[in-house]
């Protein structure tokens, strides 16, 4: 079995990636400090507790498992927090990734798959966001991810660290088999917050801004199902295994949904009222982030077939209603 080192494997996307890797015949080795992850989400392979900044521990883990590739999910990823406290984003995300890359190169593990984000594009009205678009992040989270992308390019030039960078749009949904799902503490993402409000687990949802320059005044995002997203990562590992060169891929569907449209679809799926009120804008939010690229489909053969809004909300709702969610 081929080992893949999965940093952040105890988190939302990382745990789904471990499942997909295991189904594809790999052994996912989770490396996580559990700052936002969950021990009971590590179900599909060995677990190593450690921090990205702990070079000694990383060296031990690389030596023990000799992974063929790294899948790097571990990061802090809250836009609002990154505006209030940018230092922890530069330290955890950028410095942590630097330590990880140095350990990978030292261990001669030269294939690296990285979780980046559409937040690196920032506010670019009326621009089709493809992989060649300029990157002007407007929050420290996006800036930290852009910096890691730049480090990867330098590490390839100097040390041969080949990489696939995935710039995700908004990830949603849950494993359709219910083994893993989304659980952030605190939760900041629209869909789980809304399902909590519907279920009476928290107060009404607040719409962050109704005066954006969009048809209904609320922000527009491109949502992608987490299981489709992690399928792309398995294809990314195979891409590198096949000796193909470093590449950047957007992972989105190209369809944008406003906050009000997501609320409406949730009402349809759950057949319940969505309690919400209207509030001011949230610092760091872009008006519209929608992918304008089909590169992942054309070159990787990626098919985001589960990524309809109905399916994402249904799968998230099933996870919400399962006992697993109430940790
Ligand atoms: N959720 C989204 O919509 C979205 C969109 C774009 C990009 N991303 C990126 O995808 C990745 C995963 O996101 P997620 O939603 O699963 O987040 P998450 O918080 O659920 O998972 C992150 C995991 O990384 C671990 N971690 C963080 N810092 C660490 C460190 N220094 N050392 C070891 N482990 C550490 C956490 O404990 C957690 O298990 C992140 O890099 C995020 O920036 C997420
Ligand atoms: O209570 C809420 C929560 C969210 N929103 C709105 O819903 C949309 C989606 O917000 P999320 O917080 O769910 O996600 P973001 O768009 O902020 O996503 C950003 O953060 C993610 C990581 O958490 C990813 O990195 C992603 O690429 C990046 O754009 C935004 O317009 C936001 O303003 C609300 O109106 N009310």
Automatic annotation (TrEMBL):
DNA repair recorded as keyword: no
EC numbers on record: 5.1.3.2
CDD domains: UDP_G4E_1_SDR_e
GO biological process, one term: galactose catabolic process via UDP-galactose, Leloir pathway
Xref: Pfam families: Epimerase
Pathway: Carbohydrate metabolism; galactose metabolism
Enzyme class: isomerase
NAD-dependent epimerase/dehydratase domain segment(s): 4-252
Subunit structure: Homodimer.
Entry's family note: Belongs to the NAD(P)-dependent epimerase/dehydratase family.
Name of the protein described by the UniProt record: UDP-glucose 4-epimerase
Gene source species: Poseidonocella pacifica
């Amino acid at each position: 079995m081929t080992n893949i080192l999965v940093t952040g494997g105890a988190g939302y996307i990382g745990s789904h990636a471990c499942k997909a890797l295991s189904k594809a015949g790999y052994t996912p080795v989770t490396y996580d400090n559990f700052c936002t992850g969950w021990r009971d989400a590590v179900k599909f392979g060995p677990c190593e507790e450690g921090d990205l900044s702990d070079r000694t521990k990383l060296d031990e883990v690389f030596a023990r498992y000799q992974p063929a590739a790294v899948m790097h999910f571990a990061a802090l990823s809250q836009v609002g927090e990154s505006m209030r406290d940018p230092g922890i984003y530069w330290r955890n995300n950028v410095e942590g990734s630097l330590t990880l890359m140095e350990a990978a190169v030292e261990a001669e593990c030269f294939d690296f798959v990285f979780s980046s984000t559409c937040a690196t594009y920032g506010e670019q009205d009326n621009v089709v966001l493809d992989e060649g678009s300029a990157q002007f992040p407007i929050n420290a989270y996006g800036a930290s991810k852009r910096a890691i992308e730049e480090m990867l390019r330098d590490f390839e030039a100097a040390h041969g660290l080949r990489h696939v960078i995935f710039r995700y749009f908004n990830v949603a949904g849950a494993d359709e088999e219910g083994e893993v799902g989304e659980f952030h503490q605190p939760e900041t993402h629209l869909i789980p917050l809304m399902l909590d409000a519907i279920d009476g687990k928290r107060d009404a949802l607040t719409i962050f801004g109704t005066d954006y320059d969009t048809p209904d005044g609320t922000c527009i995002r491109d949502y992608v199902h987490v299981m489709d997203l992690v399928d792309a990562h398995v294809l990314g590992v195979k891409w590198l295994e096949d000796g193909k060169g470093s590449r950047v891929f957007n992972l989105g569907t190209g369809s944008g949904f406003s906050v009000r449209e997501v609320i409406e679809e949730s009402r349809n799926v759950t057949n319940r009222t969505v309690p919400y009120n209207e509030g001011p804008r949230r610092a760091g939010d872009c008006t519209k982030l929608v992918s304008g690229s089909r590169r992942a489909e054309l070159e990787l053969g990626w098919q985001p077939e589960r990524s309809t809004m109905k399916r994402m909300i249904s799968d998230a709702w099933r996870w919400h209603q399962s006992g697993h969610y109430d940790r």
